[in-house]
Amino acid sequence: MRHRLYPLAALLPLLGAVAACNSSSSGEHTTTAADSTTTAPAVDSNAATGTAKPAGPKPAWAPSLKPEMQAVIEKLESFKTPPLHTLPVAEARRAPSPADAVKNVLIEQQIAVPPSKVDTMSKTVAPGVKARIYTPRGATGPLPVVVYYHGGGWVIANLDTYDASVRGLVEQTGAVFVSVAYRQAPENKFPTAHNDSFAAYQWALKNAASIKGDPQRVAVVGESAGGNLAASVSLMARDKQVALPKYQVLVYPIAGYDLNTPSYQKNAEAKPLNKALMGWFFDKYLRSAADGKNPMIDLVHANLKGMPPTTIITAEIDPLMSEGQMLADKLKAAGVRVNYKNYDGVTHEFFGMAAVVPEAKQAQALAASDLKNALK
C-alpha cells in the first residue's frame, strides 16, 4: 500500500491532522471551503505518538532533508502528480497536497493521533468571503482573536488544506481563530485577495464579541501567500488608520517579486514549492509585472514603519527563505520588534505537519508562545 492515495472515507478520522500545501489543494475551491459548519472527526496534530520513517535516500535537491520531512516528500512524490505549474488551475486545485501525504503517512506508519478539542462554524465576513471560526471547546470569552490566512499562491488550496495549522495554534493559544476563505486567482486578480483579507480583519474587529472574542486583542497569522496577506493587512490597517493587529506571525511569507534571490537559486527544484510554481502563481494572480512592485506584494521594499511586533518563520529548503529573512531584517531596521527563526532540514509547508515533523511542532510552539505573550 506504500504508493496508495487513500480515499476520503478512509481518511475521515484524520481530517484536520495536518495542514499543508500552498502548492496544491485538498478539496473544493477556497470560496466554498468554509460552507460546512462542522469538520469531520479531527485530531490534535501536536500530540501524535510515533515517528515517520523514510524509505529511500535523500533527494539530490535536499541533501539536508530531515527524515520525517523526507517521509512526507516521498509519499507526495508517490502520487505521481505532474508539476502543478504544467496543469490547468482546476486540475492543480484537485491534485493531492502535502496534507494528503501526511494523512497517508499517519495511516501507513500507524502513528496515533488523539482527537482535537476545537469547535468550528462558518460565517460570511464580507460579500463573497466566508470564514471558518475555530473556538477552543468549552472556552468562555472574551478570548483573544487571531485572523488567519491560508497559503496557495493566491490560486490553490483552501481552508481544509491548512486546517491542522489552525487547530494546532487554537489548542496552544486558547484563542478564537477566524480562518479566511478569500477569493482566488485567476478568477479574481490582484488586489482581490488582499482586499478580502482586510475586509475579514475589519469584520473580526467589529464582531469579535459575537464569537467569544475580545476586540482589543486581535492578531494576524498567515502562511506563504497567507503570510503576505497578513502583513498586507497590517500595512492597510496602518495606512487607513484602523486598529493595528497587536501581533503578526508570518510563516514563510511571500515577501518579494525577485525570483533570483539566493534561496530561489538554491531551491529552484525543491518540493512542494519551487521557482517554476512561484512564477505560475504570480502569473495567475498579478494583472501585470507592475503589480509585482506594489508594496503589498514586494513587502521587502515597502515602508514598514509602525508595523506590529512580528514573528517570522522560514524553512531552509524553500525558495522563499531569503525574502523571509530579508523581511525580518527590514522590519528591524524600521524599528519593529522581530523574532525570526529559520528551521533547517525542512521544506515549504512544513509548519502544519506537527503530527509527523518535529520541526513543525517546534515552530507552532514558538508561534503560539509569541501570540500568547502579545495577547494576554
From TrEMBL:
The keyword Iron-sulfur does not apply. Residues 1-19 form the signal peptide. Pfam families: Abhydrolase_3. It comes from the Bacteria. Keywords: Hydrolase, Signal. Residues 22-64 are annotated as: Disordered. One of its GO terms (molecular function) is hydrolase activity. The keyword Hydrolase applies. PANTHER family: AB HYDROLASE SUPERFAMILY PROTEIN C4A8.06C (PTHR48081), ALPHA_BETA HYDROLASE FOLD-3 DOMAIN-CONTAINING PROTEIN-RELATED (PTHR48081:SF8). This is Alpha/beta hydrolase. It comes from Hymenobacter busanensis.
